[in-house]
């Protein structure tokens, strides 16, 4: 379950969150199963965070730093992840239907069983990404 103190800080906005994170870089972030639907989290720093089962559907995560985060089973349907840093992220079993992942760095990402139906992956980096059993119906992958 999500750390309620961390959740409260995040809900104060990205600027407050990122400032807090710069002061506590070694504290494990745990926002598992949090409901963050539609939140504006553009350029948020959630590197290495525990985000399994989180609901980020329709969230704005443009340019977000999510490297090595655990988003196993997360709902990111219709989320804007344009230009997000997702290197080494675990998105196993996540929902990314109609998400914008254009220009995102998904190098070494775990996407097994992920639903990418209708997602935009144009110009994204997918080197060494694992897409076993991923659903990619109508996904846009040009120049990826």
Mean pLDDT score: 96
Q: Tell me the fraction of residues in β-strands, as a range.
A: under 5%
Number of strands: 0
Overall morphology: globular
**Uncertain residue segments:** none
What does this structure look like?
12% of the residues lie in helices and 0% in strands. The protein is low in regular secondary structure. The longest helix is centred in the first third of the chain and has 10 residues.
Q: Could you write a compact summary of the structure shown?
A:
With 144 residues, the chain is mostly loops. The protein has helices at 4-10, 14-23. The mean pLDDT is 96.
Note the topology.
Elements (H helix, E strand, L loop, with lengths): L3 H7 L3 H10 L121
What are the main properties of this structure?
single chain; 144 residues; little secondary structure; globular
């Amino acid at each position: 379950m999500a750390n309620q103190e961390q959740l409260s800080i995040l809900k104060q906005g990205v600027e407050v969150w990122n400032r807090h994170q710069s002061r506590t870089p070694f504290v494990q972030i745990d926002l598992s199963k949090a409901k963050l639907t539609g939140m504006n989290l553009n350029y948020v720093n959630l590197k290495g965070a525990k985000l399994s089962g989180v609901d980020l559907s329709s969230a704005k995560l443009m340019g977000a730093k999510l490297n090595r985060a655990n988003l196993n089973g997360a709902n990111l349907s219709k989320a804007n992840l344009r230009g997000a840093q997702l290197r080494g992220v675990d998105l196993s079993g996540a929902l990314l239907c109609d998400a914008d992942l254009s220009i995102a760095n998904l190098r070494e990402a775990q996407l097994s069983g992920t639903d990418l139906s209708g997602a935009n992956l144009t110009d994204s980096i997918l080197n060494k990404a694992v897409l076993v059993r991923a659903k990619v119906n109508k996904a846009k992958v040009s120049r990826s």
